[in-house]
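Students often ask why we bother encoding 3D structure as a string. The short answer is that it lets us treat folding as translation between two languages. Here is a chain of 140 residues written in the first language.
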Amino acid sequence: MEAQRMAGHLIRRLHQQSTQIFAERARTAGMNLTPVQFAALDAIGAYPGTDQAGIAALIAYDKATIGGVIDRLEAKGLVLRVASKRDRRAREVSLTQQGEAILTAVTPVVRDMQQDILGRLTTEESEQFLTLAAKALSAD
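And here it is in the second language, the structure alphabet:
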């Protein structure tokens, strides 16, 4: 079957596997987070006070949809949004204490699951895969 050797098909399948592993591991760890919510928390933790559009850019997510992600994180008590002093239309986002605690707890879980996602590859192959995937994405 030719699709089995097409980049788009393989990337889609790897994404499905990655999402499934994330959901399972997060659930087991008692974390009610999606991969996108984790990525947003991670970006907010690294760049507190960044506006929603900046968070969307950092995680390569659609600006129109990031508001819903931030809404859900805010409803869970993990982030706080305030109007920007520089631009009243923009809303700056930061982690709450609970958000910091969740990010601290879930980061090792996410780090460990990388082995599950690329488990059939050797350490060298995993590094090569990550380098090539980053290179393919940098063509933007």
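Translate back mentally: Helices lie at 7-28, 35-46, 52-58, 63-75, 97-117, 123-137. Keep this in mind for the problem set.
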